[in-house]
Structure formats: C-alpha cells, structure tokens
Design goal:
The complex is a heterodimer of chains A (about 110) and B (about 900). With about 110 residues, chain A is α+β, with helices and mostly antiparallel strands. Chain B has about 900 residues and is α+β, with helices and mostly antiparallel strands. In chain B, about 55% of the residues lie in helices and about 15% in strands. Classes of the chains: A alpha+beta (about 110), B alpha+beta (about 900).
Chain lengths: ~110, ~900
C-alpha cells in the first residue's frame, strides 16, 4: 500500500485529522500517528516530519496544549489535549471540509 | 494577538523548545522500533528499519522551528549573529571603521546643525514665512531702522497687506530682584502688539496690552524662560512680583516659552515706551527695528508696493526728514539668516563634505582589507553549498552592522559636539533657535551612514563571492586580490591624506593670521572702557554749534563722575567698521586725474587716543582746539604712513578727503600725529585710517567712550544719568563695554577659525588611524611572504624597511596630492576670506607634521614586520 504523504492531502486536512484524534483524550504524537493509521485502515500514514510540525502549528494557534507525562514504556512524552478554542476550531474546520468535499463531488459528477 | 505572545514566548526559550521537539522525535523513533520488534523483527534489524524509515530528524526539527519563526527571519538572525562574531574577531578593524563612520557622520551632522541654525532655520516664530522685516533705505542704499513717528504713521494709514506692525529696540540692562546681586541681561523694548504679531503667547502670565505701552503706564516686564529658570528657580509666583530693570521698578506679568528670544536675543522684554523719550524722537532718528505679519492673501511684493506709496506720501508731508527715504519690506528670515551665498559658508559646507569623504574612504579601505583576508573562508563556504547570494548577503549584513553602529555612535558624537559648541559660543552669537539636532538631518545622516557601509561593502562582497573555489582552496587564498584592490586602497588613502593636508594648510594659515591679529588687537586694552551710542535729533540740534554745546556739557557732566578718568567720542568704535572715503595727498599730484586712494575715516573727539589707550608713535593727540576754525588737524595710522609716506615724515603734511567723486572735498588738514595700526574693520585686513577731529563737523550720531578706574559696566547708570541731566529725552543706545562691542564685532572670524581647528584635528586623526589600520592589515597579509623572504636570507630590518618605505611612499603621495589640492583651493576660494598662504614655512610645517604622523602610524606595522618568525609564518598555510 502506497504511503499517503501528508503533503498530498488538502492543506489543513492534517490539522483537522489531528484535532479529531484528540477528541478522545490526551494522546502523544506517536499515538496520533498510530490512531490515524489504524482507523483509516492503513491508508493514512503520517510521517514524523509532517506530524510534529503540524502539532507545533496547532500549539502556536492555541488549539491544543501539550503536557509532559509518562508514556507506556515509562519514557517522557508530550501529551496533547484539545483546548476550548480547539474544540470550536474542529467544528469550523469540519464544516469547511464537508463544504469543500461537496463542491469537489459536484464538479466530478457533472458531465 | 495571543499568537504573537506565544511566538515571543517561543523566542525566549528557543533552545528548550527545540530540545523538546527532538525528544518527541526520539520517542517516536523508539516506539516505532518497539512496534517493529513486537511484530517479530530482531532488535538490530528493527533499529535499522526504523532509521531507514525515519532518516535524519534534522529536517523535521527545522520545519518545526519554521512554524514559529519565518525562515527568512531566521536566516537574517543567524546572519546578524555571525556578523557580530566576525566583527568581534577582527575587533580593532571593526572599531576603527565604526569610529571613522561615527566621527564622519557625527561631525557632519553637528556642522550641518550649526549651518542650519545660522543660515536656514530662521526665526522660531509661527509661520515665519509670513513675517516681514521692515526698514528704511536712503539714497546711498544705506540701511537703517524705522523711526517712531514713521511707524505710527504706517499704523494709522492702515496697510491692506499687513495685519500688524511691531517695533523694537534693545540694549544691555541690569536686572535686579530681592536677595540676589543684579544680573546683566539683554532687554528688548518691544511694542505692545509685538508678541501678537510674532504669533507667540507667553508660557505663564499674560502678554503686553496696549495699556502697558501708554506714557505713564506702570512699568511691566516679561521674562524669558532662561532667566526665569536660573534667577527665579522657575517659580510660578514670579508673576506679579516686583523687579528692577536698570534701577526702575517693574512688575513681572509673564514668562515666554523656552528657546524664545526674538527679536534680538532678548533675555526679557518691556514695552517700547520704557525707553524714555522714544515717542517724541525726531522723525529722522531711525533706530527702531520693525517687523510685521502679512495678510493671508498678501505677498511681500504687494507689501513692498504699499510701502513705496507710503514713503512717497511721507516724503511730501515731511520733506525735511523723509526725502529720498524708502521704506522697504523683506522676508524676515532673509534678515536673520546669514547669507548662505557668502563664500565663507560655502567653504564651511565644503569642508564638512571633505571630512565625510575622508571617513568614507577610511571605511571603504577597511572593508576592503577585511574582505581580502577572507577569501579562503568564502571559498570554503561556497564549497559547502552556499549560493553567491547567500554569501553576499552575509557580507552585506556585516557591513550594514558597521554602518548601523557607526550611525548610532555618530548620533552621540553629534550631540556632544553641539553641546560643546553651545557652551563655547558667547551668548550673543547663539542664533534665536539655538543649535538643535534637526530630526530630518539626523535621519538623513543615519541613512547615509548605513548606505555608505552598505555600498562600500558591496564591492568587496561581490568580488570575493565570485571566487573560483578550486583555485582559492589550492593556493590558500592569497592570490585572489591582485593589483585591482591594491589600487583602490592606495587611491582611498591618497584622497584621505590629500584632504588632510588641505585642512592642515588651512589651519596653519588661519593660525598665523589669528596670531598676527592678536598682536595687533592687543595694542588696545579694552577692559576699562565703556561705550554707548547716542543720536542727536536734527530738530533740536540743527547746527554743529548746537551739537557742540551738547557735547561740551556732556563732557563736563561726565567729568563729574568719580570713576571716569577719561572721556571721548568717536563715530566708530575700533574693530566695528568705518566708512570709506577718498583721500588726496597734498603734493602727490593725483588729485585731478584718476582714482584717489581709499581710506577709512573716524571722527574722534579730544583725547581719543589717551582715552582708548592707543599709543602715539609721533606727534600729538587731539585736544580741545582741534577741529575749530583754522585748526584742521588729522591723525593718521601707521598703515597710512606705510602707504603714502614711506620715506618721508608725515607730520606737517596736508591731506583732504571726500566721500566720492561726486562729493566736494573737505578742507586741507594737517597731519599732527601718527598711531600704530589698529583693526578698524572686523576683517583680517589692515586699513589706512584717518582720525578726523570731531569738533569739525560734530556728527549727530556718535559713540561715547569712557575710561573707568573700576568695572566699566558699573558706569552705565551714571552715564545715563549724565545724559539725562542735559537732555532728558535723549536715550543712550547699545550700551556695552568696549570688550563686548569688539567681541561681538569680531565674532564670526573667530567662529570660523575655531571650527576649522576642530575639523582639521578630526580629519587628521581619522586619516592617520586609517593609514595605520590599512598598513597593519597589509603587513598581516604579507606575513607568509615575509616568512619566505626571511627563509631566503633577508634581514628583519630589511623587512621593516620595506614596510616603512611603503608608508612613506603613501604619505608622500598624499602630501603631493594635498599640495595640488591646496593650489586648486586657493584658486577657487582665493578672492574671499578663506585664502590660504602657500608659502615655504606653511608647506614645511605641514610636511613635517605629516612625516611625524606617518612615522607614528608606521611604528606598529614595522614592528610587526620585523618580528615575523619564518617558521610560524610559513606554517600558517
């Protein structure tokens, strides 16, 4: 299965996916990548060189916050959680994404 | 925005943040490896697979960093950091370059501020462009002030182009208040509408009202801000308090804003009528200054036309006093600003530019030297993948940094320079607005400094970024800068030295001139002398006899003052100028045909020479009989004798004068005395002077001179009282000690000289530091070459000799160029006051100076060359 590089996604989609992944609760970077891979049946494989910069962007915008804690193997890891602004942003981006998809759908399905 | 705050927080803990991201990536890698092992891979296989999949974390970390700070900003940041590091490594060179820029731009800014204050700024009143200066001109184009009566008429006639007309006069006065000794101040007597016309309101209290300027009004005074601060501690309670001005009590009604000293550098102001008798002065006593404000829709030209019409009407109405008197108007700034077209100012500005040139040449040289030693570094960078643009950018940031620091330091230099200058300038010479750093000027010079460094850094940057990487790395970066850069260096150094030589010659000439003048001026000791001017109005003193009566009574009254040992009158004070006339020498035969020689004339009263302290070389001083009928005597000065009686004895010879070809001759006068030459005009030239007896014509306007046993300033009240007893309506004008009067008259010459001295010193310093820096750097460059020479058997002193010869040759080239430049300069500015003397002693002294300085500059480079150890230098490769 070919690896879908995050750069092939529409811009901003990776952030949307990350925000959604955080709804369930605090999770660290590796965990996010695993989650996305698992839920999408191995289609979305996000490399660390796209994931962590995206997380930094989310930190900059204040939509997530990071807290250091212990991971499974007792090593230090940064756990990300959604902030209130992030929750709001998720809804906004979700709507935007749906709108975009609908538009693309329409274009593709017109003769 | 909060995002900005987060970015700032990031900037503060950048390193920690970066490490956190690195830690996350490391964890990610570990967990990935763990997952692979859980899938069944062996440990090292899993590790390898992970590494292959994830690769280097550098790119990830950089992209994480790019989120917080834009990449281009990061680049510039690292450029600046690196630039600072490189400059610190070469810190003496960087310091010299910054110093050169600082001095160049700082001195220039200060000079421009001075030039601005004297020539461009004008008067510090609102909309000064709408204010006109009003005065009169007579048939001979001689300018005089306005008379009280004429101004009153102008006001009542009602001018359409001018909204307000104010008049003023001013003189030295004494200010007294409780608890402190009296201060000597300058009091401006101004009409009540004066400040209103000028458009300035008092800082405290109120302006004059029309009531304050009525005859018999209670005396009032408005203080200047400086006096208020220094004498009254800036207490608001000064309003309403009583002070004495010239012994007369007055109430303080206001304080003017800081920096306001209009119209004549006043420390305080009183209504015009404080000058007793001013309102009944004869119409032809024209001593008042006047200014007005144009109407919004009027122009100076229209006002001028109106004034011409009024002048004609007044000439018809008052033919005795106003015939051929033209009232004129001109923009007030033309009156108050020095004339920029005067060659002295042109020379001033030119010199400023020259100093800047030196500074720039210095910086250019230094940057060039620096770039030469970095070609190998550039080659290494290029080989590591730096694009040419990146390299050039880095170098430009370095020179830009020098420029910025130089500009900032230049600000400090300019500030300090102006502070020192203001302190050193006597009060009367500070223009109305003071010397300030105009923000526009500052900005211009800051930009100039930065762009200089930029521009001068560009050429070397472009050259060395173009290096052939292979060649440079192979031969150690030595062969890159050939004769081309050397030529530039030599050119810059020669320019610097040439300009320095020019300035030194200027200084030397000025020094000699000042010395000569000092010797001559010292003939008269002005300290015990007090002077004041008076003008006898034609109405009450119509004949010479009437005026003589006045002067006789005055002499007797003043003789009664205890401290006065001697008293006389003169139509001009020493150094303060004198009218020019033509002279005919009896027996010289030059009378009928051709040009008669020129001479300056001063009419002086009896005992003039004794009072003033001018010695007699031959013959006698004037006494009471000279000038009376049959006693036409004249005293001449030594210069006159040198010109006209070089071989014979002038005593007993006869001369006569006339104003010009159209005027009649005076009677023949006999020379009775010879005095040494004293400067009559405030210029370096020494004129032939004829001292005519006052009693012959008894001119209406004259200065009285009194010699005091004690402090001459203390005489002012008594002199005034003496005049009042004889004629209560006759004020004394321009009361000042002779010392003050001479200082005021001769100020501009000294100003120019002092400036020149400072600038020449600065220029010389800059040039030699530049010479030293370049030579030192050159020696450092040639260390390997010296090592080779030593290895081949050269002696250390021979190396030293080579360096010394280089320095000498450069200095010599600069000297010759400088002498050529000086010749061009004297041709350009020769006719005017800035002539330079290119005689043997000047040239010799300047050459000596250059030689000494060059030797000093070469000491360290030579020492370096001599100390070269062949082993270390050859290993340097």
């Amino acid at each position: 299965m070919g690896k879908s590089d995050a750069s092939e996604l529409l811009p901003g989609t990776l952030e949307l996916l990350i925000l959604k992944a955080l709804v369930a609760g605090p999770i660290h970077g590796y965990g996010i990548a695993q989650h996305l891979k698992a839920v999408s049946d191995d289609v979305l494989q996000v490399g660390e060189s796209s994931l962590y910069p995206a997380l930094q962007r989310l930190l900059l915008k204040g939509w997530v916050k990071g807290e250091w804690g212990a991971s499974e193997n007792n090593r230090r890891a940064r756990f990300y959680t959604l902030t209130a602004a992030g929750k709001k942003q998720l809804t906004v981006e979700r709507r935007e994404f749906d709108r975009l998809m609908l538009a693309i759908h329409k274009v593709l399905n017109t003769a | 925005m909060r995002e900005l705050l987060r970015r700032t927080w990031y900037l503060l803990r950048r390193r920690d943040h970066d490490e956190e991201v690195a830690e996350e990536l490391e964890l990610h890698r570990a967990l990935t490896q763990q997952a692979l092992e859980a899938d069944g891979l062996a440990a090292n296989a899993a590790a390898l697979a992970t590494r292959r999949a994830m690769g280097n974390d550098v790119s990830a970390r950089q992209r994480a960093r790019d989120v917080w700070v834009a990449p281009w900003l990061q680049d510039i940041g690292s450029d600046i950091k690196f630039a600072v590091r490189m400059l610190m490594r070469d810190r003496w060179l960087a310091f010299t370059a910054i110093l050169a820029l600082a001095v160049g731009s700082g001195v220039n800014t200060a000079m421009f501020a001075i030039f601005n204050a004297y020539c461009l700024a004008g008067v510090p009143i609102a909309h000064a462009g709408r204010v006109i200066h009003v005065a009169t001109r007579d048939l001979r184009q001689q300018e005089r002030g306005m008379s009280f009566a004429d101004i009153e008429d102008l006001r009542t006639i009602g001018l359409t182009s001018v909204t307000g007309l104010a008049s003023f006069s001013g003189e030295s006065a004494s200010l007294g208040s409780e608890g402190r000794a009296p201060d000597r101040v300058f009091r401006s007597a101004i009409s009540a509408n004066g400040f209103a016309v000028a458009g300035v309101t008092p800082l405290l209290g109120r302006d004059f009202r029309a009531d304050d300027d009525r005859p018999g009004a209670p005396p009032t005074v408005i203080l200047g801000e400086q006096i208020w601060r220094t004498r009254f501690d800036a207490q608001p309670s000064v309003i309403g308090s009583a002070v004495t001005v010239n012994g007369v009590a007055a109430t303080v009604i206001g304080v003017m804003p800081a920096g306001f000293r209009f119209p004549n550098r006043a420390d305080l102001w009183q209504p015009l009528r404080v000058m007793t008798g001013i309102d009944v002065q004869a119409r032809d006593v024209r001593v008042l200054g006047a200014f007005g404000r144009l109407n919004d829709d009027a122009s100076v030209a229209r006002a001028q036309v109106e004034f011409e019409t009024v002048s004609r009407r007044l000439a018809v109405a008052y033919p005795a006093t106003n015939t051929d008197i033209q009232i004129f108007a001109e923009p007030i700034n033309r009156q108050y600003n020095a004339d920029i077209t005067q060659p002295a100012w042109a020379a001033f500005v030119t010199i400023g530019v020259l100093v800047l040139l030196i500074a720039w040449a210095n910086v250019a040289n230094l940057l060039l030297s620096r770039s030469m030693s970095r070609s190998r570094e550039m080659a290494v960078r290029a080989s590591l993948g730096a694009t040419r643009r990146r390299v050039v950018r880095q170098l430009l940031v370095e020179s830009g940094l020098i420029g910025l620091l130089g500009a900032l330091a230049g600000l400090g230099v300019a500030r300090i320079g102006l502070l020192l200058w203001t302190r050193a300038t006597p009060d009367f010479a500070i223009p109305n607005s003071g010397f300030t750093l105009d923000p526009v000027v500052l900005a211009v010079f800051a930009v100039m400094s930065c762009t200089t460094a930029f521009v001068f850094g560009l050429a070397p940057a472009l050259t060395i970024s173009k290096t052939d990487v292979n060649r440079t790395l192979k031969d150690g970066g030595r062969g890159v800068h050939g004769p081309a850069s050397r030529k530039w260096t030599i050119a810059f150094l020669t320019i610097q030295l040439a300009v320095t030589v020019l300035l030194l010659i200027n200084v030397s000439t000025a020094l000699r001139r000042a010395n000569d003048l000092e010797r001559i001026d010292r003939i008269i000791d002005p300290t015990p002398l007090m002077t004041a001017s008076l003008a006898l109005p034609a109405e009450r003193y119509q004949t010479a006899a009437a005026r003589l009566v006045f002067h006789d009574r005055l002499t007797r009254a003043i003789a009664g003052i205890g401290e006065v040992t001697s008293f006389t009158v003169a139509t001009s004070l020493p150094v303060s100028g004198a009218p020019q006339q033509e002279v005919e020498i009896d027996g010289s035969g030059s009378g009928a045909a051709g040009q008669l020689p020129a001479v300056r004339t001063v009419a002086v009263g009896p005992h003039y020479l004794a009072t003033v302290g001018q010695p007699l070389l031959r013959g006698r001083d004037f006494d009471d009989r000279d000038g009376t009928a049959g006693q036409d005597s004249v005293v001449v000065n030594q210069r006159f004798v040198e010109l006209h009686y070089p071989a014979s004895d002038p005593l007993g010879q006869r001369v006569r004068v006339r104003r010009d070809r159209s005027a009649p001759f005076s009677a023949w006068m006999t020379i009775v005395g010879v005095t040494p030459t004293v400067r009559q005009r405030p210029v370096p030239d020494l004129d032939p002077v004829l001292y005519l007896p006052f009693r012959a014509q008894v001119p209406a306007t004259a200065a009285v001179i009194a010699r005091s046993t004690g402090n001459p300033g203390a005489l002012s009240a008594q002199l005034r009282a003496a005049v009042q007893t004889i004629d209560p309506d006759l004020p004394l004008y321009q009361m000042a000690t002779l010392e003050q009067a001479i200082a005021e008259a001769s100020f501009s010459g000294r100003l120019g000289f002092r400036l020149l001295l400072v600038i020449a010193g600065v220029a010389a310093g800059l040039s030699f530091i530049g010479l030293y820096a370049v030579m030192t750097h050159a020696v450092m460059q040639r260390t390997a070459e010296f090592g080779v020479r030593l290895a081949f058997g050269a002696r250390p002193w021979q190396l030293g000799g080579m360096v010394a010869w280089r320095v000498a040759a450069q200095a010599g080239a600069g000297l010759i160029a400088g002498l050529l430049l000086s010749t061009a300069w004297s041709r350009l500015f020769g006719e005017t006051g800035t002539v330079i003397r290119l005689d043997v002693s000047t040239v010799a002294s300047v050459t000596l100076l250059i030689a000494i300085a060059a030797s000093l500059a070469s000491l360290i480079p030579v020492r370096r060359a001599v100390r070269v150890d062949p082993m270390t230098s050859l290993r340097q490769d």
